[in-house]
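just leaving the lab so this will be short. what follows is a protein written twice so to speak, once as letters and once as structure tokens for the fold. can you read through it and tell me how you think this chain folds. anything you notice is useful, everything is just below:
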Amino acid sequence: MTSDGPALARRLSAEGIGAFFLFATVIGSGIMAENLSDGNDAVALLGNTLATGAMLFVLIAMLGPISGAHMNPAVSAVAAWRGELRWRDAGAYMIVQLAFGILGAWAAHLMFDLPALQLSVKARTGLGQWTGEAIATFGLILTIIGTVRHRPALVPASVALYITAAYWFTSSTSFANPAITVARSLSDSFAGIAPADVPAFIAAQLIGAAGGAVAGATIFGRRHGAVA
């Protein structure tokens, strides 16, 4: 999650590339899985899960040394709160994550010969799904803080495995990322979410991220030598 070292332009490039491929994977694998599953949602979700977990591992292993491989505004906000990233840099991260993530969603549509511009009609709402998003994001933040602090070499595997598990143990299938929630609202596919349901999902994610940040600080401590 740290950012000391590479220049901001390099870090933003890494975040953009990471968000593009991650979001394209989430949406593209959902389209592929739905096409091949013959209406079996469990099989489609399994395909979506495996592709997402695999891509997360690759992107974090590759880009983590450059930008931290956040690819998630909630992660960037927590890094800034912990003093591991300047707030102005976190804002730039968030803009790039959203912009390039949306490009990734559009690229997924084009790869499958679908209209690039679309809106989802898939309803995802209710207390159960909001609770799922809060818990999914809480766990993601706690996983990142703990492994960065004590097992940095295991961050790619830990995050990838956590998201793989959270796809299945949470009612919401673990979006756990405000930017990807917005991008998924722009895809009327297996991974989509209706635009009207996005604000509540993001609110739940931010609540979960805040809780994860506080729990992480309590259990693992704050970073020493914070960024000014």
Summary: Residues 10 and 113 are 32 Å apart (CA to CA). The two ends are 16 Å apart (CA to CA).
